[in-house]
C-alpha cells in the first residue's frame, strides 16, 4: 500500500479497510502534528488534537468526500480544531493570523470554512458582516459563492465567467479586508495585555 495514491487509500478507507487507514495515518500524522504544534505551544494538546483528527476520520469515513489529495482536507480539520481551541481559550487574535496567511488552495476545504464560521464571536460576526456588506458587488458575489455556497475557485470562475487567477486575487483582497477589520477589535487589547504583563 506504500505506493497507493490518496484516492486509492480513500476508497479503501471508506469501505472500512484498517490497513488503508493506518497508511493514511503514517503518511500524514507528522505533518499534521507539526502544523498544529506551530500554533499551540502545549505539545500535549497538540498531540491530542492530532489524534482526534484521525479518530474522527475513521468514525466518519463514510460521510467525508475530499476532493483530490487527502492532506488539504486533513489540514482543514486541523485548523478547525486549532481555531476551536483558540475560541474556547479566548485567544482570538490567532484567528487573524491564520485567516490572513491561509493559502488559496487550502482555503477551499469545507472544514476550514466551517472553522472560521464557528470561531467568530458576536463582535467578530458583526465586524465581518459589516465588512462583507461593504464589498463591491462582484467581490461580494465571490465571497458568497466561496464561503456560503462552498464552491471551489474553479467553479466560481466558471459561474462568474472570469479566470481562476482573478478569483484568487479577489479572495486575497477579501481576507485582507476582514483581517484589517478584526485588527481593530478588543481582542488585540486582550492579546497586548498578556504580552506586556
Automatic annotation (TrEMBL):
GO biological process terms on file: DNA-templated transcription initiation
Domain RNA polymerase sigma factor 70 region 4 type per the UniProt entry, residue ranges: 129-177
Family to which the UniProt record says this protein belongs: Belongs to the sigma-70 factor family. ECF subfamily.
Keyword set, alphabetical order: Sigma factor, Transcription, Transcription regulation
GO MF, one example: DNA binding
UniProt-listed Gene3D superfamilies: 1.10.1740.10, Winged helix-like DNA-binding domain superfamily/Winged helix DNA-binding domain
Domain RNA polymerase sigma-70 region, residue spans: 24-90
Descriptive protein name: RNA polymerase sigma-70 factor (ECF subfamily)
Organism per entry: Albibacterium bauzanense
Amino acid at each position: 500500500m506504500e505506493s497507493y495514491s490518496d484516492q486509492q487509500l480513500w476508497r479503501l478507507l471508506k469501505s472500512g479497510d484498517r490497513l488503508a487507514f493506518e497508511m493514511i495515518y503514517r503518511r500524514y500524522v507528522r505533518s499534521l502534528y507539526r502544523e498544529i504544534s506551530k500554533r499551540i505551544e502545549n505539545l500535549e494538546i497538540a498531540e491530542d488534537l492530532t489524534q482526534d483528527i484521525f479518530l474522527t476520520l475513521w468514525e466518519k469515513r463514510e460521510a467525508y468526500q475530499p476532493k483530490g489529495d487527502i492532506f488539504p482536507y486533513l489540514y482543514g480539520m486541523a485548523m478547525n480544531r486549532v481555531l476551536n481551541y483558540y475560541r474556547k481559550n479566548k485567544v482570538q487574535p490567532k484567528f487573524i493570523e491564520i485567516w490572513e496567511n491561509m493559502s488559496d488552495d487550502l482555503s477551499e476545504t469545507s472544514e476550514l470554512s466551517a472553522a472560521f464560521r464557528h470561531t467568530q464571536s458576536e463582535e467578530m460576526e458583526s465586524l465581518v458582516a459589516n465588512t462583507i456588506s461593504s464589498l463591491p458587488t462582484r467581490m461580494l458575489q465571490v465571497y458568497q459563492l466561496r464561503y456560503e455556497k462552498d464552491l471551489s475557485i474553479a467553479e466560481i470562475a466558471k459561474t462568474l465567467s472570469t479566470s481562476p487567477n482573478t478569483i484568487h486575487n479577489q479572495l486575497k483582497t477579501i481576507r485582507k479586508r476582514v483581517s484589517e477589520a478584526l485588527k481593530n477589535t478588543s481582542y488585540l487589547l486582550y492579546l497586548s495585555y498578556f504580552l506586556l504583563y
